[in-house]
Amino acid sequence: MAKKSWSDMSPTQKRIVVAVGVAEMALTTWCARDLKDRPKELVRGPKLLWGPVLSVQPLGPIAYLVWGRKR
């Protein structure tokens, strides 16, 4: 299956792409803010490592939420 360019997509497909992008950015922003505000004792591993991990989309923010935070 060949990649579609933006102009080849239907209006519904374009809305889905934009919605997923907005959700991804919101999740990443929320995780970055949580990481910044959370004490280092409540983060698994060094906080400096989690910063770059958050940029790996979409797995970084999900990994932080699942494994990076202590309860």
Automatic annotation (TrEMBL):
Q: Which InterPro entries match?
A: CLS_N
> What compartments host this protein?
Cell membrane
Keywords noted in UniProt: Cell membrane, Membrane, Transmembrane, Transmembrane helix
Every Cardiolipin synthase N-terminal domain range:
27-69
The UniProt entry lists membrane topology as: Multi-pass membrane protein
Name of this chain's protein: PLD nuclease N-terminal domain-containing protein
